[in-house]
Amino acid sequence: MSNFARTLRQALTVARRDFTATVFTPTFLLFLLAPVLMIGFGTVGGLGAKSIVGDDSQMKMVVIAPAEQAEVLLKTDKQLRKIFPPKSELMPPPLTIAAPDGDPAAQARAFFDSDKFDASAVLFGPLDKPEVLYARRGWTEAQFLTQLAEQTLRAQKLGSAEPVSTVTQTAVKRGQGSPGGRGQAASIGVFAIFFLTLFLSGQAVGTMAEERSNKVIEILAAAVPLESVFFGKLIGMFGAAVLFVLFWATVIINATKLLPPEVIGNFPSLVAVIGAPTYALLFIAYFTMSYMLLGAMFLSIGALTSTQRELQMLSLPITIFQMVMFGLALGAATRTGTWFTLAVEIFPFSSPLAMIGLAGSSPLIWPHLLALAWQALWVAIIITIGARVFRRGVLKSGSPKRKSRLRSAGEKALEAAA
Amino acid sequence: MTGELAVSAQGLVKYFGDRRVVDGVDIAVPKGLVYGVLGPNGAGKTTTLRMLLGIIEPDGGERSMLGRAHPRDASDLVGYLPEERGLYPNMKCREAIAFMGALRGLPWKIGRKRADALLDNAGLGHAKDEKIRKLSKGMAQLVQLLGSVVHEPQLLVLDEPFSGLDPVNQEKLEKLIRAERDRGATILFSTHVMAHAERLCDRLSIIAGGKVRFEGTVNDARATLPMKAHYTPHHNVEGAASLLPADAVREGDGWRFTLPASGIEALLVKLIDGGYGVSGLSIERPGLHDAFVKIVGEDALKDQAQDQEQAA
C-alpha cells in the first residue's frame, strides 16, 4: 500500500469514528435543530422589538382641508398609492381628512398629542403653499403629503384626478451580464458560504479535546501520523456539517414548493455569469475549502488548549476572524479588477469567499481551478503545521533550545577530556 | 547477540527543556522474545519506548523497528499499550477493539469478529456491547490490551502493563503475553515490578537516570550478585562465627554470609571438624529484585559522586 493510500485509510478510520461519535448522539439533534431555535427566538425578539417601537396599525396621515377638497384629495391619494407594492411595508399609513378648526397650525400640532391614533405627518394650509409637520420616522409620509398636495392641485387644474395616460407594464428578466445580477449572485454566494462556515467550522475547535482528556491521543499518535489524525478529524466534522447542510437544504427546497407562486416570484433569481450548474458546483467546492481551511486552523489552535475555559475563550476571536474574512470578500465582490480584490482572492482564508464572488461576476473557469488547488495546498500546509506544533507542544517531542544543547555538548567534551 | 532484531536503538537522546531525560540509550530486542525494560520511576523508560515507537522524535541517536528505518513505517505491525490508558468512553467494547485494529490496517469486519473471540477468551464475553464507561478500570484496561493485539502484531509494546490490575487480571495478562510470544510475536514491556519481569523476560535492560545500566538475561542480572548461604550450626552458634567469612551476620539460629568463591564444601568440612556440626544449610540465589537494587543503587551513588565532583 502506498504511503498516500495508507495515510488516507488512516484518516478515514479516524473520520469514521468521529463522524459516528458526533452524529449518533442526542446533542447532534439539538445542533441540527439549532436554526429552528434561532428562527424561533428571532421571531419572538422581533415581535418584542415591534411592540417596543410601536404598532404601525395605529399610524395615520392627516390633511387639514375644507370638505370640498376631500374628494379630490382622496382620489389623488389612491393614485399615488399605486407606486407602492400592495400590502408592502413601504405603503404609507391611511389618510384622514380633517376640516379646519380655528388656528390650523395649532390644530395640526394637536394631532400629534392625540390618544386615538399616532399621527406620522400632518398637512395644513392652502395646497399651493402647504405646511407639513412630521413626527420621528415620519419623513417618508411628509414627502408623500407634499406630493399629494402637488398632485391634488394639478388634478384640480385639470378637473380630474384620473390618469391621463395608459401604460402597459411587462416584467422581464435582467440579462446575466448586468451589474446588478452579477453583484447579486456574488453577494448571495459570499453570504451563504460565510453563514454556513460561521455556523459549522467553529465546531472543529474542540475536536481534539476529547482525545486529550481521554488520553486516547497516545494510542492514535502511536498508530497513525498526527497529520492523518488531524485530517481525519476534519473530514469527520465536515461529514457532520454536510449532513446538517443536506438536512436544511431538503427542508428549504420542500418548504418553498408549498409557497404560492406570487411569493416565489418575489425571490431574487441568481444570474451567475458562469452558468447555474457550474456556479452550484463551485459553491460546493468553495464551501468545502472554506470549511477545511478555517476548520484546520481552528482544530490546530484548539488542539493546543488544555482546558475547556481556554477553548471557550477562543470562540470570540474565531467569530471575529470569520467576520473579517466575510467583510474582505464582500468588499472584493464590489471592486472587481483591483489589487484589493486580488489580495483577498489570494489570501487563503478569504479566498473561497472571494472566489465564489468572482464566479458570480466572471465567466472564466481557470481562475477557479487554480484557486481550488491553492486552497487545497493551504489546507495541507495548515494541517502539517498544526500537527507539528501539537507534536512539539503537547506530545513533548520538541528539541531543547540550541543554547542548552551546545552547553550540554560542551560539558560532555569537558568530561571526555577529563 | 545473534538473530534478527525486532527493535534496535543506538545512542538515543532526549531532552525535556534543559534536562537530558534519555542519555544515549542502546537497545537490541531480538525477534520472538519477551524483553523487559526495567527501571525506577522517572528513569526514562516511557520516553525511550515513545521514541522507539515514533510518537516523539529523539534529539540524538538512531532507531529501527522490524527492519524499518522509521518506526512509523512499521506501525501496522506493532501493538501498543501506553502507560496512560485511554479509550473513548462512549464506544462499545467490540467497537473499541475493532477501531484500534482498524487504525493498524485491520478491516472493521474482521476486527469485530476477532474482538468477539478475544473478549470471550479473556472472560469478557458478556461485555461485548457494553460501553467502555460502564466497565471497571481493570476491565477497561484489559479491553485496551485486547485492542493492541487484535491485528496480531509482530511486535507488542506494553508500557507498565501491570499497573492498576488486580492479581487475577495480572495473571490473565501474563498468560496473554506468553500466548503472544508463542504466536511468534516479540514483546517489549516496561515495568518497575521485578516479579513480573523475573517470570516473563527472556532478556532485559535496566535503565536508570536515562542510561542503560545493565543488559542481559534475568540470570545474568542475578549473577551480578554473589550467592548467599544460610548456615545453622548444631552446637555453639556464636563460636562458629570464627570459621565463617567476614561478612557473616547473625540471622535467627544461624548465620548468613556470601558464598565463598571456592565453594561451600571446604567450609563445611572445617565447621564439622571444628565440632559445630550442621543443623541446617541453604544456598540462596539472589533475586532480580536484589540485582535491580544493586545495579540502580550503585549507579545512583556513582552519579551522586560525579555531581559532587563537578560541583567541587
pLDDT < 50 runs, ≥5 residues of chain B: none
SSE order of chain A, one letter for each helix or strand: HHHEHEHEEHHHHHHHHHHHH
Low-confidence stretches of chain A: none
Q: Judging by the overall fold, what is the CATH architecture of the largest domain in chain B?
A: 3-Layer(aba) Sandwich
Question: What is the H level of CATH, i.e. the homologous superfamily of the largest domain in chain B?
Answer: P-loop containing nucleotide triphosphate hydrolases
Cα-atom radius of gyration of chain B: 24 Å
CATH class of the largest domain in chain B: Alpha Beta
**Main sheet of chain B, how many strands, which sense, barrel?**
6 strands, mixed
Q: Fraction of residues of chain B in helices?
A: 25-40%
Assembly state here?
Answer: heterodimer
Shape of chain B: elongated
> Largest beta sheet of chain A: what is the strand line-up?
2-1-3-4
Distance, first to last CA of chain B: 41 Å
Shape by Cα distribution of chain A: elongated
**CATH fold-level name of the largest domain in chain B:** Rossmann fold
Task: Walk me through the structure.
The complex is a heterodimer of chains A (418) and B (312). With 418 residues, chain A is mainly α. Chain A folds into two domains: 59-158, 3-Layer(aba) Sandwich (D-Maltodextrin-Binding Protein, domain 2), CATH 3.40.190; 180-401, no CATH class. Chain A is built from 17 helices and four strands. Chain A has a four-stranded mixed sheet with strand order 2-1-3-4, sandwiched between helices. In chain A, strand 1, helix 4 and strand 2 form a beta-alpha-beta unit. Chain A is elongated. In chain B, helix 2 (93-103) packs across helix 3 and helix 2 packs parallel to helix 4. Helix content of chain B is 36%, strand content 26%. In chain B, the strands form three sheets. Chain B has a six-stranded mixed sheet, with helices on both faces. A four-stranded antiparallel sheet of chain B has the order 11-12-10-13, with no helix packed on it. Chain B is built from ten helices and 13 strands. Chain B is elongated. Chain B has two domains: 5-222, P-loop containing nucleotide triphosphate hydrolases (Rossmann fold), CATH 3.40.50; 228-284. Chain B has helices at 45-53, 93-103, 108-121, 137-149, 167-183, 194-200, 218-222, 237-240, 265-273, 288-311; strands spanning 5-16, 19-30, 34-38, 60-65, 78-81, 155-159, 186-191, 203-208, 211-216, 228-232, 249-251, 254-258, 280-284. Chain B has 312 residues and is of the alpha/beta class. The longest helix of chain B is centred in the last third of the chain and has 24 residues, at 288-311. The interface between A and B is medium-sized, with 34 and 33 residues.
